[in-house]
Write a structure and sequence with these properties.
Elements: H1 3-10, H2 13-25, H3 28-35, H4 39-53, E1 58-61, E2 64-67, H5 69-96, E3 101-107, H6 109-114, H7 116-126, E4 130-136, H8 139-147, E5 153-157, E6 166-179, E7 201-204, H9 209-220, E8 227-231, H10 234-242, E9 247-251, H11 252-258, E10 265-268, E11 275-282, H12 290-301
Parallel strand pairs: 3-4, 3-5, 7-8, 7-9
Antiparallel strand pairs: 1-2, 5-11, 6-9, 6-10, 6-11
Length: 303
Amino acid sequence: MTDDARFLRRLDLTTLQIFVAIAEERTLTRAAQRENIAPSAASRRLVELESFLGVELFARHAKGMTLTDVGGSLLAHSKRLLGNAATMNAELREYRAGIRGYVTVLANLSAIVAFLPGDLETFFLQHPELRIELEERPTARVVEGVLEGIADLGICSSDADLKGLDASVYRRDRLVVMMRPDHPLAALDKVAFADTLDWDHIGLHARSSIYTRSQIGAREAARPLRVRIHVPGFDAVCRTVVANLGIALIPGPVFDILGPPMGLRAVPLTDSWGSREIVVTTRPGEPLSPGAALLREHLLQAR
């Protein structure tokens, strides 16, 4: 038997769950209450876990317990393992209920707002027995999640580092500069990004691919990017533009949904990087479940 096989035989999900509770509650007493076991039982499981691993997972203090470095590493792995176990249970429960598949998808905000609602509507009409868990993440974290096996499919911008993931084009869009109709740029038919840098910008959160690309564009133009405020989503971007706090880069299809009802104007960006590909990503060399394969095929046919 290999070391990995022996390690897996000794792993105990209940003990890991108690370990996570101790890490989050920082005391054995509160962790035991949370997991509905006696403090002595929680303490025994922790001692056995540390003995098995041969390391100290916590530093004990008079006022509680704090994770050691190795404890912090185990916490991240434990949460991922317990999360996968919960997903497996949910999927198997739905199989027992007659649902034939469960697909987990991570997608960036652009895809969720502009493209996925309509495409998922037609998908569910064809495959009502399937269930999809959709989570919004910035592109870099979509890539991380697919690599780590958290999701079956990832949907994100292709201009990021995809780290070897298989990628197929799902949709294309073009970035536009959004502003109030009384803004000096609003009369233009098109605009270069460098010509927008005289005005304050509204930025999506710092990990968004649009904000990252705007920073690169400013560096290429050898001009500063004046970001007045960062906001978490496109609706907030539109509302801050309406409030005259600045102009903003936004995907054209997203503007078509959100901008006109707010009386905003959009001018297409002329820079080549303003044209984007949104891709469906998967882990290379790993077969997809039947449900994930059906969803991937449907999305690629929708382009």
